[in-house]
Amino acid sequence: MLLNPLVSRRHFIRHSLGLAAMGTGLAALPFQPGHAASATIRKASSPLGIIDDLMNPEEHHSSEGRLRTKLFMSVADVLLPTGPAKLRIFNESLPAPTLRIKPGDALEIAFENRMPANPETTNMAANIPNRFNTTNVHYHGFHVSPQGNSDNVYLQIEPGQRFNYVVRIPEDHPAGNYWYHPHRHGAVAAQVASGAAGMAIIGGALDEVPEIAEAVERVLVIQAPVPGLDGLLTTENPIWPLDAERNFLINGVYRPRIYLREGEVQHWRILHAGDAQFLPLRADGLSLYEIGRDGNPLPRAEENDEVDLAPGNRVNILVKAGKVGTYQLTRPAFNQGKMPLPELLLADIIVIPGNDPRITDGNRFGRHLPMGALPKNHILTDIVDGEITMRRKFVLGVSDIKGFFKDTEFTINDRPFDPGRDDVTAKLDSVEEWTLVNTTPFPHPLHIHVNPFQLMDVNGVADPRKPWLDTVPVPAAGSVRFRTRFKDFTGRYVMHCHILPHEDTGMMINVNIES
Ligand SMILES: [Cu+2]
Which of 62, 63, 451, 465 could staple 101 via S-S, CB 3.0–4.6 A? Predict the structure, then answer.
């Protein structure tokens, strides 16, 4: 099957979904072949019903407290703007299906690695990209257990193996936009740059704000697949240069059309699932209001000309259309550290009359912006000075090491990642303040698993909103300070740079939370 992002959108055979129920429970390892999907599946579709409109990705919804579904990684043939490519992706779908769940749900994923065997016969050093056909699944931003068959990034799911994930979402989990992608150290960049990623939406209070509830909702997964030189990526060489040519796609489509009606307010959930380049986004002629970032609402809607996304970030924005006409969603030219990156045209935005006959009946038509305070998540309360039990400093660096990939090693506190070393050991329920200092000439978006953090300041300048995030860019030669509570879950997890070639070459630490 040739997936072609240049045409409007292809249809996929949904392998194995909807088979008759055969299995029993799936609490235990390993994979149970009788595991049956119980997801409600909504096919990819235009929210307005317009034929050449950008479609929201296929969605798998939970019901009665669980979302049981199947995911597999395999090699898919895809026609990219740069030509035919072979990509390692989930469910032969670019992006992977959106998972839509609720607090309190169990996410039960029967995962299968359908990749061919790795060509390597020996294990390589920890921080050299390797074994691109071995994988796992990380649930980015989820506040869940990092152990066992939950959000465990130390798992190595080899070609031909199956694994049952059971990820239990707490009842009081913050609502918002999350995502899932592979996190097998050594292959993260190659697999995510291939396009193996999907949105995960946890429903809740923000969606119930009347002005947001009445708006048409769009899911926009921005990916930047990079093919290998002769098909499948077998080395990180093609993605190593920050300015390497990347195919920026939204929901698998190159430069899609996105329709809005005159005067309409739409709710866009945007995920930056690219591997390396930042995405400052503009839509000149339309008004953009940021209402949430990563998993959490902002205190109130903020109008901005530009919405900034680092790799790994998600935003909720309200987009208000003015007059009928054609507009553009762009990334303006900018410098990422010392690297100039060109302007990109990401999508055409087409504003049509409200009574356009192509629009299907019964669509929502939001026209209003929420003016007051947005709902606060009751567990993510401000971390005050008196709560802090420990302060730590982390220095992000890079050094030349002969024999390593590109003779480069990325470090945190002068050491590259060591899977056998605990860099941070802390007690459950302790509260810490971390300062991240960047000694390099490039920004690094740092992401920490399991527990979100409250951003205090950037380059010493306080952020008055004190937003709760899971991924924050540490500016080139700059710093950030954040606070975090180690709540609910013991076990080991990681903090790392979300410029994924940096992660694979060492910019990661282990955090071990003990009871
Ligand atoms: Cu980095």
Answer: 62
